[in-house]
Amino acid sequence: MIEEKHDLRFVPATEKDGLKLSAKDVAYYNAQGYVQPFDVFAASEIAELRAYINQLMSDLGPDGAYGVNCYQARLSGLWDIATDPRILDHVQDIIGPDILCWATAILSKKPHDPKAVPWHQDASFWALSPARTVTVWLAIDDADEENSAMRFIPGTHNQGAMEVQVTGGEAVFHKQTANAEALGEPFTNVLRAGQMSMHADMLVHGSQANRSDRRRCGLTLRYCPPSVRITDAAWATGVEAILCRGQAGDWKTHPRPDNNDITLTQSPHVVGNN
Fold this sequence. Notes:
Layout: H1 23-32, E1 34-39, H2 43-60, H3 64-67, H4 76-82, H5 85-95, E2 99-109, E3 117-120, E4 128-129, E5 134-139, E6 151-152, E7 164-166, E8 175-177, E9 187-188, E10 195-200, E11 205-207, E12 216-224, E13 229-230, H6 233-236, E14 242-245
Antiparallel strand pairs: 1-10, 2-12, 2-14, 3-11, 4-13, 5-10, 5-12, 6-9, 6-11, 7-8
């Protein structure tokens, strides 16, 4: 299923009332590149998920805050979150009934974490085509401007790949969208723990250093339809997709794992932080 073409054009979702999203919600996503907030997990449920996420990070050691990447096919707990019908119902209203999850990441900024995530477009760094991935950002902690919630630049998802430049200072990675300050006013993705947002894979986004006394932790889940293809054979070796709903097409997918101990396995692939 390796293809050479890298199509980064945005294709609008069908604007109709769906399982969870209204036609107005979908129209907003098409125009702005994101839509939020959506209630998914109750307080008691997110408390259990938080304890699980905390344990994974603790077991991984010093790299836990930024190192729990792409374990969705290797840990049953992450598999179960990624395939939760309440999340998938939202995703289906954007990408359709055939849903693959090809990446996940725990993104935890400790209080006073100096690392920023520079402005960037995810899909421009991925070996996937066409650009049809929808990222769910599930709030494990409350996320707001004070503790460095993710920020979007609305409407930048349909402008193609933008020029990048090297970033300075303390950052999670060292490339950023050039002249992002000229692209529009950022929107802060404020979410309560247990809520989720969705954003398009070419939307310019990032987050600032966490200068607060509160942690900001989220779980990202990357979903795409089977029409998406991997464009690089070497990159493909690190992608372990799971079929969440419908048909997988030509994708190789992995069954639910028996293991839920992160110390007994390792990440197959690291695809970035937000």
